[in-house]
Amino acid sequence: MTLTIQHIRHATSLITIQGKTILLDPMLSDTGELPPIPFTRHVRRNPTVPLSVPLETFKHIDAILVTHLHVDHFDKTAKKILNKKMPVLCQPEDQQRILSWGFENVFPIEQFKHWEGIDFTRIRGQHAKGNISKLLGPVSGFILNTPDDGSLYIVGDCVLTDQIKQVFEQHKPRICIVNAPNAQLLFGSVITMIPEDIGTILKTSPSTKVVAVHMDAIRHCTSSRKDLLQYIEQQQLLDSVVIPEDGEYIYF
């Protein structure tokens, strides 16, 4: 069985695993339909690029997986158009808000959940360092594992912490999706991974294939695909890192 990732835009992907299609972190608004990100120096609206697929695409999914509820990971269009009976898997802190949006089947993952032949393990994350982390609220990553497909680690909007390094040391995931746009708030607070973190991850787990996303769609993300490509070329990591374009399929 083939594991497939279709990168839609920003942090949004369609993951097909164990024959099920899971929508990850749905930001489905058209260009300019979302406000500027608070506490950044950018005053123009988001996203900066259109959705790469028609909205009808999201009628053909089996579940939704949400790392956290910032507007660029679960937006107003997603709340409006997604089937309210669709299973939603999330961190426990987000269950009540998602229920309040009318979704009926919301499954919080405290540590572990088995769903439709897929094992989900939640990894606690940290959206920034210091007090900024409290401002931004909780965020999680998830490891999806099946006997046929191996492990896929969705890291989420996390800075690279010692705990996440330990996850790579212990699990050595076959594939990981990393948000590495060097997103910044005012005063230079970095709130995601940066290109150099991918190098650290691959030193820790050289067999992992990295899918790098979260670039070229929201204004406070300061590293572009071009920037990341330049870094991985310099570090000779081209065989280990994929930087998908919006709408692109990746087959494993």
From TrEMBL:
The keyword Amino-acid biosynthesis does not apply. Keywords: Hydrolase. It comes from the Bacteria. Pfam families: Lactamase_B_2. Residues 9-214 form the Metallo-beta-lactamase domain. The keyword Hydrolase applies. It catalyses: 3',5'-cyclic UMP + H2O = UMP + H(+); 3',5'-cyclic CMP + H2O = CMP + H(+). Counteracts the endogenous Pycsar antiviral defense system. Phosphodiesterase that enables metal-dependent hydrolysis of host cyclic nucleotide Pycsar defense signals such as cCMP and cUMP. This is MBL fold metallo-hydrolase. It comes from Paenibacillus taichungensis.
